[in-house]
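The record is given unchanged here:
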Amino acid sequence: MDDYDPREADKVDHEMMVISLDDIADLTARLVGFLKARTISIAIEDRDFQRLRDEAMGQYLSLYPMEPQFEFDREKQSASAPPSVVFVNGAMQPPLLATERGVRLTELFAKYKGWSGAEPASLDEWERGVKRFIDVHGNMYVREITANHIDEFMTTLRRYPRGLTKDMQDQPVAKVIEIANKREHQTGKPVNRIGTATIEKYRAGLGAIFSHGLPPRNIVFFNPAKGLTPDAETAKKKIRKAKPRLSYDDNDVTTIFNSPVYRGQQSKGRRSEPGSVTIRDHCFWLPLLAIFTGARLEKIGQLLCDDVRREDEIDFFWIQTIDDEEQSIKSGSARRRVPIHPMLVQIGFMSYLEERRYKHDRRLFPGLTTSPNGKRTKAFSQWWGRYNHAIGITDPKKVFHSFRHTFVDAAKRGKVPREIRKSLVGHSLGDVHDGYGSEDSIERLAEEIAKVTYCVDLSHLCSH
């Protein structure tokens, strides 16, 4: 094992040793602590860390040899006698003895659904992905699922039709593809297949589910869905064609907060027309919260009144934390604290909150309605696009999400430390320090977020 080369994994035919899950988990934790004490930052998923762990485990086995349990023979191997330790992409996979396989995919998904931060709209789509994965591979034990299984699943889905006909309903993936292929052959017309974006959603869903089981939960020890793309060439073309979102610049910010919603509108139904009516509802507050918190639109829109809390005399938002790439939780905490910016206080947000509580509103923005897909801000997002255009911001790359970029830009200008910026906007740091040590104090977060300022006069909003 000392001379192990991941590229030679398929050639391994020697006796494999049984290693307990506690051994692997303990070794990983010890390595993380060792590196942290020496201020060495390296991601647990990084190949260098995996190689270091594998080498350390090799030394462990050489010092404390164990009795071999069976001869490893890939041709004779059966599901009832899998190898004790398998190396996947250079990383050591946990033991796969019958008593240590852990849970099946449906069980891990059920645990993920029970997590309070899981979004209903995402869960519905990811549940379809889980069902289709099971159609392809069966309800596997999660510790036995490798990147090859995920890759084969995505390859299969490229042949899955878009929009199922009646005879395809409730059929397994293989049968649906068979019906589609037969129809294509009979009619001579190509069947429209699902696109890369849909396949990527399923991969991201599986990635989120697996991430939920990573240490310290120790349901799985690596994420087989991470880093894969449904189709490398298609993904590259998609990236090239994608329209990146831009930040709102100073002129845009000035335009927005001097537009009719903030200076006076005709009426609730004619918000883009100048007038004398000011309505401090979600249309007024969502852009302000976005530019002074950096949070995503849906995260703000789904806030409850109880999500505004107080600690050490500092008011803050208790915002759901979702990883950008995989929408997955990197630690036991499903929330992040974002102090309420002093400018929001000056504009009157705390008074707005008290009004909502006085009226016994559960939601911070009761005027928003939930769409069929579970999103509370879908209708508002569409309205914002129209409003943006009406007030003269017509660049298609500037959308509501641009506020998030604008916040990050302002935080950089204000010299807010990188780790604090990431903490405020809910990004993972992506190194071994994640999940270890204490989080930043609310006082520190409040001090740093106050450094986020803009070159726009908002005094007309503070006279309310």
The first helix runs from residue 21 to 37. Residues 45 and 389 are 43 Å apart (CA to CA). The radius of gyration is 26 Å.
